[in-house]
Design a protein that fits this description.
Length: about 180
């Protein structure tokens, strides 16, 4: 029913969608591989409005200020941060890696208008770009279905997508997670 779809889009708050897209870009930019492997706390900086989210790591209390962890001395908290900062293993950093991957996934969905299920089934290691109209046709392999799939992306998104492919290959290198 085309009337049903047009009514849904009429009620869509485009300013909110634009803001959300900008926030996704901010999350991705803040969570570079260097920042993910850097010291806790990890800062996620948003441009509009100017705001910084501080990720302390799973199970770590906030550094400085008043702590809600009764009986925890500043020394104990500092020791925990030191131990966590020394451990840059994949397992230790997985929650913040997942946040970056989820933001990238949502940006891809926004760009391609694909549903989540088919996006999850794509294999990134077999992507190729072909010029198409005002953008690119991206071909990849859909693992579970066992066939190729093609989606259109804009010229401006290609560099973001290639950056994600590089990030993913570096961060998941040596793990059992397929690229």
């Amino acid at each position: 029913n085309t009337g049903e779809y047009s009514q849904r889009y009429e009620n869509l708050d485009l300013d909110l969608v634009t803001k959300f897209s900008s926030d996704l870009d901010d999350v991705v930019e803040s969570l570079s591989l260097e920042n993910i492997k850097g010291s806790y706390p990890i800062l996620i900086k948003f441009k509009s409005p100017e705001f910084t989210y501080v990720y302390h790591g799973q199970g770590l209390p906030p550094k400085g200020g008043v702590h809600s962890f009764k009986g925890w001395s500043k020394k104990r908290i500092d020791e925990m941060y030191h131990a966590r900062n020394a451990n840059v293993s994949f397992e230790q950093r997985l929650p913040i890696i997942q946040l970056r991957v989820q933001a990238e996934c949502l940006r891809f969905i926004k760009e391609t208008a694909m549903n989540l299920a088919p996006v999850i089934g794509l294999q990134i290691d077999s992507v190729e770009f072909k010029s198409y109209s005002d953008g690119y046709l991206v071909k990849g392999f859909k693992a579970r279905a066992g066939h190729d799939v093609a989606v259109r992306i804009s010229k401006s998104y290609r560099s973001k997508f290639e950056s994600y492919i590089k990030f993913r290959s570096k961060v998941f290198e040596g793990t059992e997670i397929s690229t």
